[in-house]
Design a protein that fits this description.
heterodimer, A: 83 residues, mainly alpha, 2 domains, 73% helix, B: 168 residues, alpha+beta, Aminopeptidase, seven-stranded mixed beta sheet, 32% helix
Chain lengths: 83, 168
């Protein structure tokens, strides 16, 4: 990854990296990665309302048995694949 | 005995432009967004091959999210386990109108569930979550035992354990 920096930005990065005892590359990578992880977590983590969470968690702790329609569908699926 | 439907990752040979289901948004996704999502590793898209190797009879997209609950009063929070629960999201599932009535929706759903179940042997994942685009689509999933969330009845889920018990 090539970055085009103005002089001022470059100086700031060099100073910050020096304070942290890191190379500029390591400093940029570490801070950018941390910011990226925050964005990914915000986008990919869903916070459920209490009522939804209760329902979800209870079902995971005690999974419902498959119903007849699901069982029949699995049989068809396996037959088609020749399992 | 008919040939089993062939389901494979979406690739350049598939004719995305000819695909037409009942939801224009699902056609548009395949046409404009799907390849980009795959490239950026946001989602995986699988297609059910139609009467020619290029034809798309149906497709689905899978991605992963983790689910957590909001903040609770401290006393309650201590009693309940609290960690994000990783789950697979079946964000889109569609069958071309020409191929209706062949149980292709079911074939796509079970193929997705099976892939997720296999993946969960390597990486912890606890549920398959589906986003239905209409109430009719929500009823389709409910028939197989999917449970609707309380605050959004078009989002339903089923623990992977239930698929495992069904022998998938």
């Amino acid at each position: 990854m090539h970055l085009r920096l103005d002089l001022r930005t470059k100086r700031t990065l060099e100073r910050a990296a020096a304070y942290e005892g890191k190379s500029v590359t390591d400093f940029v990578l570490a801070t950018a990665t941390a910011a990226a992880e925050r964005v990914v977590e915000r986008r990919e983590k869903v916070v459920l309302p209490q009522a939804d969470w209760d329902l979800f968690f209870r079902a995971l702790v005690k999974p419902p048995p498959p119903n007849k329609i699901l069982k029949a569908a699995v049989r068809r699926f396996r037959d088609r694949r020749g399992d | 005995m008919t040939e089993p439907p062939r389901i494979e990752p979406l690739g350049p040979r598939h004719d995305r432009a000819s695909f037409g289901c009942a939801e224009p948004a699902l056609d548009a996704y395949l046409m404009r967004q799907a390849s980009q999502d795959i490239r950026r590793r946001i989602a995986q898209v699988f297609v059910l091959v139609g009467d020619t190797p290029q034809a798309i009879a149906g497709y689905y997209s899978l991605s992963a999210e983790s689910f957590d609950r909001g903040e609770l009063p401290e006393a309650q929070a201590k009693r309940l386990p609290h960690y994000p629960v990783p789950a697979a999201i079946l964000g889109r599932l569609a069958v071309d109108q020409v191929y209706q009535g062949r149980r292709y929706g079911e074939a796509l759903l079970l193929d997705a569930a099976r892939r997720v179940l296999r993946a969960s042997e390597a990486i912890a994942m606890h549920a398959l979550i589906v986003d239905a685009k209409s109430d009719a689509a929500a009823r389709f999933y409910a028939r197989y035992g999917f449970l609707p969330f309380a605050t959004n009845t078009r989002r339903l889920f089923l623990p992977l354990e239930t698929f495992a018990k069904a022998g998938l």
